[in-house]
């Protein structure tokens, strides 16, 4: 099952090893790109064991299904939102680990701030449940299809804007 | 004239040796003062002993002997607490339960004979009230307690109290059965319900040697009856806060705790009387001292369970009771019957089948 | 009957559960978290990289060493700098000591959940051994602020190696005592075996982390999968158990403590001399990084986006307890109420870590 | 099975006579290690009032106040988390971390260390062991 290239990293010829060792990572990126040529805007290998894929938001579920069913990415590690007020959009990043391939893939997508809605990936990975709830709370992104998108970490009477957005300023002198 | 006659009788009674002795017994020795002292010493000892097992020191500052008076300090502190009755609680039942539980636990003490003593009365034993059926009465007071627990748990109008009350009912009722069966073999050997008779019949050999299985069953069942770890499910702090007395505060809580330690006292005295030869022993210390010494050792072993075992779960507890203890107790009864049939010379006084 | 378990309950911690109880059986459970939500991710965005070091470790002070470990690894990867070898080994030592201290704390909580107070006190006492060592090395007992981007703050003090060896020998004897007192205790086995079974497929589906996952037979350990610091130079084993019940999870943690002792010994043996720190610039190049470390509770991920300034643009902490939390309602369905504290403690969930 | 019931009893008995871990804290003082980071202390003679400590403090526990013609840092011990960054970053080594950890006060205002108070060295620990009797004599209390 272990498809990793058996070359181990050495100290003196790091450059050479770097080129040969990333075959699997490149292969994953290529596979995603080949299956969804129009939806995947970027697929690259960041470093050893890290692949970054940027997908259009309406095709996220399809790409996720491909990743899970065909490429063996089965272990959710993190879901994070990033606020870009200059571009007026949120970036949602799913970090998925593959137990068999030992690769971490970052599945990125962007949603507009005016219409922060995104198809939930809970149908693909069950484990994104609480992560998506947290992201919903902290950024105000609606995950369509999530069964329980209710208040989680914030207090019940929280009426200010979602706190992890950049326009939410921390009080300078918290008491 | 009737009143004067009655008053005369009453005054006669008041100044009779009988009354003075009764007063002495109720207030001093097996009664109030003794039980308070016992509770104090046992609480102190439990805390120090467990602390040593835990590699701690335990209470340190109050009184001599590294904090002997700590229970008194705790008592005074608890005395100053406000009594809180939860809203929607059944006030009468709620307030009655702590008084009842401490009274009923204390009643059992009235029937335990504490060994022979010079007495003005016909009964040559130190006992508050003598009756030949004292063992049955003590067990009766043991059996009443789950009713109070259910009442108090229900009256508290708290979920944890209710769960604790039901647990108490389950446990105490389930462990009555092995308790009684293991007593049955003792009674068969002694031929009497009278604790004095039972102790006297152990003058040659203690019953723990004649019936070790019965002793084991009685000991475990008694631990469960007393609600000591590993059988402290009715109070299980980590699961249901404090069981049925969860909502009690102040002096009411103190009553519940005191009742627990009175029960511990009665239980260890019973174990000593039934299996460990009661007040029998070499004559260099008085019989009453023997009785107390033995029961203190029993108390230590009971307390030690707290430092050694995790708590059982309810299904495991009932499993142990019904599938292990009851068959063992029945086996013990059969063994006693067989001994009486085939080797009657072992037994102290053969009352079985002539 | 609906029972609210916490936040004022002897073993609930700073959160509460909504338990749906049918007679004595739990039929549903919903965690209510957020009592200690401090918004550490947001606070970190408003501090510089060096100021974030004391902030991120307060997400979980029982395991502060590993929490900072992940953060500094991430920042160093963003900066593209290589830490001196000696600093790597010192980091491994601190991380493993922190792991042992955290596991000992868990052992207390686990034994108090099953109702054995003796095993509450012994590990608390023996935890002092490691807290004292860490104080000797880092200057603080719990929140060390010892790792900084570029290395560690102080070198090993004089006599540290001998003191560590002495305490390790003692602690190994104590571990045997623990095994006899708790793990071989009949009642503990009755309470934990076949309770709260988390099957292998379920564990991966729920993406639980760390010892909980390894107790279900999945051999994932970041220290082996993606060796960071000096873990690739130390040949340790990753303990796994296949049953997936509470006892298996407890056993995994016990064996991890043994492995941690081994790792500390090896690291002290192999530690080279040299620098402990390289100088770094306060600002960090533009980019993003996802760094993973194996904390005591499992895999901990830091996702840091940098816009080229001296503060992180976004810092996401993927905390281990938060990820294991998802499996708690699953394994709590259909168990008697007496097992609720046992199951909660068996996953080693810390509310501070869940909320961040 | 019998062994698994009896062994814990044996273990408990074996621990009965071991030495305890307890430290009777207010009477027995444990010396912190040499590197221990307690309350920071300012060396008034070396401080030039550059403000680096205020800039680096993650919790804003330090702020500059005017003393005479100089601006000097003032500590709010209620906000300090003893990370020691101020001492590390101080260019003239005017800020040092002391081993003083008994910082409890009765109100919030006493937690604020003005530059003068900030610069006073804490009292030294003697670390002596006192018996309980001596404690009573010394403190005049029966309950610790």
Proportion of strand residues of chain D: 5-15%
- Low-pLDDT ranges of chain C: none
- Characterize the main sheet of chain D: 3 strands, antiparallel
How many separate structural domains of chain C?
1
By CATH, the topology of chain C is: Cytochrome-c3 Hydrogenase, chain B
Radius of gyration of chain C: 20 Å
The CATH topology annotation of chain D reads as Alpha-Beta Plaits
Shape of chain D: elongated
Contiguous helical run count of chain D: 5
Beta strand count of chain D: 5
Task: Report on the architecture of this protein.
Chain A has helices at residues 14-21, 23-35, 60-69, 128-139, and strands spanning 40-47, 50-55, 75-84, 89-98, 103-112, 117-119, 142-144. Mean pLDDT of chain A is 79; it is low at 1-19. Chain A has 175 residues and is an alpha/beta fold. Chain A has one domain (37-168): NADH:ubiquinone oxidoreductase Nqo5 subunit (Beta Polymerase, domain 2, 2-Layer Sandwich). Chain B has one domain. Chain B has helices at residues 2-14, 17-28, 32-53, 64-67, 70-79, 91-109, 134-155, 159-190, 195-200, 207-210, 212-226, 237-240, 250-275, 287-308, 314-342. In chain B, helix 3 crosses helix 13, helix 6 packs antiparallel against helix 7 (134-155) and helix 8 runs antiparallel to helix 11. Chain B starts with a helix and ends in a 12-residue tail after the last helix. The model of chain B has no long low-confidence stretch (mean pLDDT 81). Chain D has one domain (2-139): Alpha-Beta Plaits (2-Layer Sandwich). In chain D, strand 2 (62-67) and strand 3 (70-76) form a beta hairpin. Chain D is elongated and about 80 Å long. The B-D interface holds B 49, 51-53, 55-57, 60-62, 73, 304, 307-309 and D 8-9, 11-12, 15-22, 24, 132, 142-144.
Question: Characteristics of this structure?
Answer:
heterotetramer, B: 354 residues, mainly alpha, 68% helix, globular, D: 144 residues, alpha+beta, Alpha-Beta Plaits, three-stranded antiparallel β-sheet, two-stranded antiparallel ribbon, 5 strands, disordered C terminus
How does the SSE layout of this entry go?
The complex is a heterotetramer of chains A (175), B (354), C (356) and D (144).
Chain A: H1 14-21, H2 23-35, E1 40-47, E2 50-55, H3 60-69, E3 75-84, E4 89-98, E5 103-112, E6 117-119, H4 128-139, E7 142-144
Parallel strand pairs in A: 2-5, 6-7
Antiparallel strand pairs in A: 1-2, 3-4, 4-5
Chain B: H1 2-14, H2 17-28, H3 32-53, H4 64-67, H5 70-79, H6 91-109, H7 134-155, H8 159-190, H9 195-200, H10 207-210, H11 212-226, H12 237-240, H13 250-275, H14 287-308, H15 314-342
Chain C: E1 2-5, E2 16-22, E3 25-32, H1 40-45, H2 52-56, H3 64-79, H4 85-114, H5 118-138, E4 147-148, E5 151-152, H6 160-183, H7 186-192, H8 200-206, H9 210-215, H10 222-225, H11 246-270, E6 287-295, E7 298-306, E8 312-318, H12 320-324, H13 327-331, H14 340-346, H15 351-355
């Amino acid at each position: 099952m272990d498809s990793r290239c058996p070359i181990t990293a050495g100290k003196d010829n790091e450059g050479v090893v770097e080129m040969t060792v990333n075959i699997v990572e490149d292969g994953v990126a290529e596979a995603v790109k080949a299956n969804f040529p129009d939806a995947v805007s970027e697929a690259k290998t960041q470093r050893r064991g890290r692949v970054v894929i940027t997908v259009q938001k309406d095709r996220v579920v399809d790409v996720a299904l491909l990743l899970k069913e065909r490429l063996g990415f089965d272990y959710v590690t993190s879901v994070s939102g990033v606020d870009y007020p200059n571009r007026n959009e949120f970036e949602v990043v799913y970090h998925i680990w593959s137990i068999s391939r030992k690769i971490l893939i970052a599945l990125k997508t962007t949603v507009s701030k005016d219409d922060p809605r995104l198809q939930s990936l809970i149908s693909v990975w069950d484990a994104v449940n609480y992560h998506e709830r947290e992201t919903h709370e902290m950024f105000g992104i609606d995950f369509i299809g999530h069964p329980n998108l209710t208040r989680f970490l914030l207090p019940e009477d929280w009426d200010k804007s979602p706190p992890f957005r950049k326009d939410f300023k921390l009080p300078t002198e918290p008491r | 004239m009737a009143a004067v006659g009655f008053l005369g009788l009453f005054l006669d009674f008041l100044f009779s040796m009988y009354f003075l002795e009764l007063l002495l017994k109720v207030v001093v020795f097996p009664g109030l003062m003794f039980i308070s002292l016992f509770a104090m010493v046992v609480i102190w000892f439990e805390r120090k002993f467990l602390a040593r097992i835990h590699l701690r020191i335990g209470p340190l500052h109050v009184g001599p002997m590294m904090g002997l008076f700590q229970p008194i300090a705790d008592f005074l502190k608890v005395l100053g607490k406000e009594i809180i009755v939860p809203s929607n609680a059944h006030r009468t039942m709620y307030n009655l339960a702590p008084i009842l539980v401490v009274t009923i636990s204390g009643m059992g003490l009235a029937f335990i004979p504490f060994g022979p003593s010079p007495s003005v009365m016909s009964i040559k034993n130190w006992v508050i009230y003598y009756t030949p059926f004292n063992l049955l009465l003590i067990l009766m007071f043991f059996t009443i307690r789950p009713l109070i627990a259910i009442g108090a748990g229900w009256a508290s109008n708290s979920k944890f109290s209710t769960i604790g009350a039901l647990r108490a009912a389950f446990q105490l009722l389930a462990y009555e059965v092995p308790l009684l069966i293991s007593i049955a073999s003792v009674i068969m050997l002694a031929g009497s319900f009278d604790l004095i008779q039972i102790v006297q019949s152990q003058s040659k050999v203690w019953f723990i040697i004649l019936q070790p299985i019965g002793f084991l069953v009685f000991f475990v069942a008694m631990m469960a009856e007393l609600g000591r770890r590993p059988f402290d499910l009715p109070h299980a702090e980590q699961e249901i806060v404090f069981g049925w007395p969860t909502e009690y505060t102040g002096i009411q809580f103190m009553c519940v705790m005191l009742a627990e330690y009175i029960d511990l006292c009665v239980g260890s005295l019973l174990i000593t009387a039934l299996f460990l030869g009661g007040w029998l022993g070499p004559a260099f210390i008085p019989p009453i001292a023997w009785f107390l010494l033995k029961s203190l050792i029993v108390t230590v072993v009971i307390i030690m369970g707290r430092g050694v075992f995790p708590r059982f779960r309810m299904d495991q507890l009932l499993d142990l009771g019904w599938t292990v203890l009851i068959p063992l107790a029945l086996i013990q009864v059969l063994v006693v019957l067989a001994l009486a049939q085939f080797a009657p010379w072992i037994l102290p006084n053969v009352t079985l089948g002539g | 009957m609906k029972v609210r378990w916490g936040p004022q309950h002897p073993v609930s911690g700073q959160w509460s559960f909504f338990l749906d109880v049918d007679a004595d059986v739990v039929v549903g459970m919903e965690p209510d978290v957020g009592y200690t939500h401090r918004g550490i991710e947001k606070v970190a965005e408003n501090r510089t990289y060096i100021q974030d070091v004391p902030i991120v470790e307060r997400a979980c002070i029982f395991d502060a060493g590993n929490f900072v470990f992940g953060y500094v690894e991430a920042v160093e990867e963003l900066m593209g700098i290589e830490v001196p070898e000696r600093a790597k080994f010192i980091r491994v030592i601190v991380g493993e000591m922190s792991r042992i201290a955290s596991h000992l704390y868990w052992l207390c909580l686990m034994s108090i959940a099953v109702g054995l107070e003796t095993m509450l006190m012994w590990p608390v006492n023996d935890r002092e051994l490691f807290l004292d060592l860490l104080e000797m090395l880092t200057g603080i007992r719990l929140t060390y602020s010892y790792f900084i981007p570029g290395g560690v703050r102080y070198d090993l003090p004089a006599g540290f190696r001998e003191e560590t060896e002495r305490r390790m020998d003692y602690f190994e004897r104590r571990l045997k005592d623990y095994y006899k007192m708790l793990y071989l205790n009949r009642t503990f086995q009755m309470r934990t075996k076949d309770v709260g079974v988390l099957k292998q497929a379920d564990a991966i589906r729920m993406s639980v982390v760390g010892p909980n996952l390894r107790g279900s037979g999945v051999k994932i350990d970041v220290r082996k999968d993606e060796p960071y610091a000096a873990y690739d130079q130390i040949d340790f084993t990753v303990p796994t158990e296949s049953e997936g019940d509470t006892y298996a999870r407890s056993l995994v943690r016990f064996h991890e403590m043994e492995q941690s002792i081994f790792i500390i010994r090896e690291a002290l043996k192999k530690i080279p001399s040299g620098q402990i720190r390289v100088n770094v610039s306060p600002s960090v190049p533009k980019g993003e990084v996802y760094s993973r470390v194996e904390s005591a509770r499992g895999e901990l991920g830091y996702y840091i986006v940098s816009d080229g300034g001296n503060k992180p643009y976004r810092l996401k902490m993927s905390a281990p307890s938060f990820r294991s939390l998802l499996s708690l309602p699953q394994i709590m369905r259909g168990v008697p109420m007496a097992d609720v504290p046992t199951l909660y403690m068996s996953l080693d969930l810390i509310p501070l870590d869940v909320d961040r | 099975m019998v062994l698994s019931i009896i062994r814990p009893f044996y273990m408990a008995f074996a621990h009965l006579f071991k030495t305890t871990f307890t430290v009777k804290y207010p009477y027995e003082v444990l010396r912190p290690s040499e590197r221990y980071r307690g309350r920071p202390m300012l060396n008034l003679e070396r401080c030039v009032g550059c403000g680096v400590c205020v800039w680096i403090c993650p919790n804003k526990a330090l702020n500059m106040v005017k003393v005479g013609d100089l601006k000097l840092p003032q500590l709010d011990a209620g906000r300090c988390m003893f990370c020691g960054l101020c001492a590390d970053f101080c260019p003239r080594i005017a800020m040092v971390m002391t081993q003083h950890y008994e910082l409890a006060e009765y109100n919030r205002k006493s937690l604020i260390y003005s530059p003068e108070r900030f610069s006073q060295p804490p009292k030294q620990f003697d670390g002596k062991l006192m018996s309980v009797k001596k404690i009573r004599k010394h403190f005049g209390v029966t309950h610790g």
